[in-house]
Every structure is written in structure tokens, then in C-alpha cells.
Amino acid sequence: MRILIADDEKEFVKALSVLLRNANYSVDFALDGEEAMDCLHGASYDAVILDINMPKMNGYDVLKQMRKEGIKTPVFFLTARSQIDDKIEGFNLGADDYLPKPFSTDELIVRLRAIIIRSQGGVGNLLKFGDLTLDLAKYKLYCGESFLSLSNKEFQIMELLLSSPETVHSSQQILESAWDFDSETDFSSVWVYISSLRKKLVQLGSKVVIKSNRGAGYSLDMPNDL
After folding, report:
1. How many of the other CB atoms lie within 10 Å of CB of 79?
2. Which among 20, 48, 149, 157 counts the fewest CB atoms within 10 Å?
3. Of 152, 133, 129, 145, which Cα lies nearest the Cα of 211?
4. What is the pTM of this model?
5. How far is C-alpha 61 from the geometric centre of its chain's CA atoms?
6. Helical axes 84-92 vs 59-68, angle rounded to 10°
């Protein structure tokens, strides 16, 4: 899953980026509101973490512009402004969550993942299809009682596939979801990780397969219904 951080505090952005990458997210960042909008026009994100006090466009204005343009990406305000009026303003503009600084890193990860899952129509910390269950809190892929831990990229790709299993996801979409904007990689990397995931599904004994769709991309399929 891919996250955009918009905050003008460079050191904070660096630290938060490390935290999110360790939690299996890909991260892009912007240091002002206009740069944040440029990022949103150029890529798709699963959530946006916004500060309020930013140059050029503040966080409120970024959210207003997003909703005006029909960008429905979940927005998480992470800001030093902790007054109730600030929170009310954020929620009235269409924010999905609001957490004042300083904050618990564990709470941030849990709440961020929750708004992403809700936006995709999911419930709790589990994504399921066929005999597979991906535990988003434990970063493990289950088939019945058997489970495997996934690498960072494997986890992000499987999370994307399981979030809409019958949708065909192109290699470009997978790159955008699982790799950072400035990452130097190409479609061959996607194939390598898809190949690794296919082997792990066989290792788990799952009936679910990652299906190639005539060069269009990848989706999940279960030829033999359980």
C-alpha cells in the first residue's frame, strides 16, 4: 500500500517514512501543500497523512481541493494542533481520522490501516479470499492452520491482490502500490515477486492461484471452489 505524507518538518517526515516502510508501506512525501497536490495528480495513494500548518497550501486547503476534484483517498490529519475546534474543522471537511502530535506510533499504524481497510470495504485486520487469509496486523498469510511470513514487497502485493481479488491489477499499478515514487525498479521486479508468491501459495497448500491475464496484469483465482 502506498502512502503520501505532507508535512513541512523534514526530520519528522524522514522518521515517519522509516516507521511506515517498516510497517510494509511504500511512502512518498511532500513538504508543502502545492507539492502534495502535485503528487496526488501524478499517482494513486491508499491514504494521505496531512499536517495542517504547511506553506503554500495548508492541510485544510489541500483536503478541500482533494474533495473538490473528486479525490476520495482517505485523509489522516497528523498535526500539532490539538484543539477540539481544529478536529471538528478537519472532520467537517471530510477527514477520515485525526491524531494530534505527539502520538503513539502503534496507535498511528493501527488507525491508519483501519481507515484504509474501511475505504476498501473491508472489516477488521483480515483480508480473505478462498482459503487464504492475510493478517494485516501480524503480516502473515494463512491457509487454514498453516501460515507464512511475507517479505515487505510480497506483503504489499498480496494486500493489493486480496483487497480486490477478481480485479486485474497491471504491473504498473502494482509498481505504484508497492514501490516508492523515486524507486529505481521496473516490471521485471513485479514478475520476480509474483513468482515468489506463487511458490509460497503452493507451499501453503492453497487452492488460490495468481492468474496472469494475457499481459494485462494479475488477479486471484480459485479454479476449484471450496
Report:
1. 23
2. 149
3. 129
4. 0.64
5. 23
6. 20
